[in-house]
Every structure is written in structure tokens, then in C-alpha cells.
Amino acid sequence: MSLNKRLAALLVSLAFLSGCDGNSESPNTAKIDEEYNLIITNNSPLFLKSVVVTVEEKDETHINSFIDSNISVGEIAKFKMENGNHNFKITLNPKKNYSVSKEVSEKFEADKIIAYQVKIVNNEVAIIKKSEKD
Asked: How many whole angstroms from its chain centre is CA 64?
């Protein structure tokens, strides 16, 4: 092999390896961006057309959403919630003219991530809070 081919192979190898961060953690255990503290993972075979989190506080309604996002299996929708106690509703639209929602109450704290997952349970779409062991 000529010197030019070896040098080219070395440069290609370095370029390839520089794109790898060497992180072998699974998506469920990988550290989530600290900017977000509510995550919803799609663990169903459905594409989620939209994920909406609605927070109603006193006279105000705050809506955070991913519309036409097509969140596929294993992908995560991330939201930033203010610290404190919040009652909110998670609404999913896996199909046209079909939605699933769940009302929940959570206490958000600094450096704490609350995780939910979308699963199929008994042939129904379910929104389930992930436990520490999931």
C-alpha cells in the first residue's frame, strides 16, 4: 500500500472515530440534558404525531408541545417544568382523530428528572410513570 493510501486510510479512520463519543450507555440510562426535567419515552410501536403537556395554574394555562414530530420507538420528548408542585395533563396523538391523555401531579425539584413512558398495555396505549428500576 502506498504512503498516500495509508495516510488517506488513517485520516478516514480518525474522522470516523472522532464522531464516536465512546458512550456505551443505553438511551434509558444515558444522562438527559439537564435543561429538561420531564421526559416522555415512546416505548410503543406507534409513531406519536404529537405530545402535549398542559399545566393549569390559577388563572393561567401553559402548553408545551411537540406537534407533527413523529416520535418513533425509543425516542424521547423532553420538557422543562418549573420547580414546585404541578398538576398537568399529558396528551398523545398516535393516530389521526385519536388521542390518549393522563392527568398527573408531580413535584419538580432541581437536579431531578421525572420520566414517563408510552407503552401498549392490554392492546391500549398507556402513559406510565417509569420507576427507578425501569
From this structure: 13
Cα 41–114–72 angle (5° rounding)?
10
**Spatial CB neighbours of 125, under 8 Å, sequence gap ≥ 6:** 44, 46, 92, 94, 100, 118, 119
Q: Which residues of 72-105 are buried (b: 16+ CB within 10 A; e: fewer)?
A: eeeebbbbebeeeebebebbbbbeeeeebeeeee
Q: Residue 76: in which H helix or E strand, if any?
A: strand 76-79
User: What's the farthest any 2 CA atoms get from each other in the chain?
Assistant: 74
Burial, 69: exposed, middle or buried (Cβ in 10 Å; 0-12, 13-18, 19+)? middle
Compute and round to an integer the Cα radius of gyration of the chain.
Answer: 20
Q: Using one digit for the tens of pLDDT, what is the confidence trace for 15-57?
A: 444 444 433 333 443 454 568 999 999 999 988 888 899 988 7
Residue 38: closest CA among 57, 59, 54, 58: 54
CA distances from 125 to 16, 39, 56, 105, 115 (A): 40, 17, 24, 20, 17
